[in-house]
Amino acid sequence: MIRRAENSDYEEMDLVFRESAKALCIRNYEESKVLDWVGQPWAERFVESAAKGNDQFVKISNGKVVCFAELNTENSKLNSIFVLPDYAGKGIGQEMLNFLFCRAKEAGLQHLKLDASLNAVNFYQRNGFKQQGVSEFTTQNGVVLDSVQMICVFCN
Ligand SMILES: CC(C)(COP(=O)(O)OP(=O)(O)OC[C@H]1O[C@@H](n2cnc3c(N)ncnc32)[C@H](O)[C@@H]1OP(=O)(O)O)[C@@H](O)C(=O)NCCC(=O)NCCS
User: Fold this and answer.
1) Pairwise CA distance, residues 25 & 143, whole Å
2) Among 33, 112, 34, 41, CA closest to 70
3) CA 56 to chain centre
4) What pLDDT, on the 0 to 100 scale, is given for residue 156?
5) Would the pTM count as exceeding 0.70?
6) Is any ligand 1 atom within 6 A of the Cβ of residue 150?
7) Ligand 1 centre from 122 Cα, in Å?
């Protein structure tokens, strides 16, 4: 089940973020950078992110949050999808992305943009995103990471 996130999900979402980044992003970045990015538990990151207009969704499986995503329909940006490592490779990221495509289209968006972490570029490419450029992305806690700017234009 995918549903809108509630404040009571934030601690679990923080765990998913930290475990996912440590296990799945670390191969494409310097380990020290990923560890700086992940930092200490900080569930308030999601309070801050919601205040910036991000809609937050969680996938619940076996009674726990196994994936979350953030979509900003004000600026047509897919902010993040993170899957708990033990649940990666089982179609959950794909299910979440399909869900976000539906939400974006329902909101009348013509396209979605994102800054892909290097490890996720192929995942997005398989889903119709095209590379626009390579840039640096500053995370919420100020760590600068290489990323790839991508766009998916919807055909009506
Ligand atoms: C990228 C991520 C969201 C993918 O989620 P997932 O649940 O593991 O992916 P799925 O199992 O739904 O895979 C769907 C398809 O994409 C493929 N795929 C998954 N991750 C991929 C990757 N990194 N590169 C290329 N293909 C990938 C799968 O093989 C699968 O293909 P299939 O349908 O032919 O079997 C997940 O690996 C993740 O959380 N990564 C760390 C966080 C991150 O980098 N998020 C993106 C930030 S912008």
Assistant:
1) 14
2) 112
3) 10
4) 67
5) yes
6) no
7) 8
Question: What is the structure's pLDDT at 92?
Answer: 98
Spatial separation of the C-alpha atoms in residues 141 and 35, rounded to whole Å: 12
Q: Which CATH architecture has domain 2-153?
A: 3-Layer(aba) Sandwich (3.40)
CA dihedral 103, 72, 140, 135 (to 10 degrees): 100
CA gap 76, 113 in Å, rounded? 6
DSSP H or E segment with residue 20: helix 10-20
Stated length of the chain: 156
- For each successive 10 residues of the chain (156 residues), what is the average pLDDT? 98 98 96 95 96 98 97 97 98 98 98 97 98 94 96 91
**Does the beta carbon of 124 lie inside 6 Å of ligand 1?**
no
Ligand 1 and 90: CB distance under 6 A:
yes
Query: Is the shortest distance between the CB of 120 and ligand 1 below 6 Å?
Result: yes
Distance 114 CA to ligand 1 centre (A): 15
Nearest CA to ligand 1 atom 33: 91
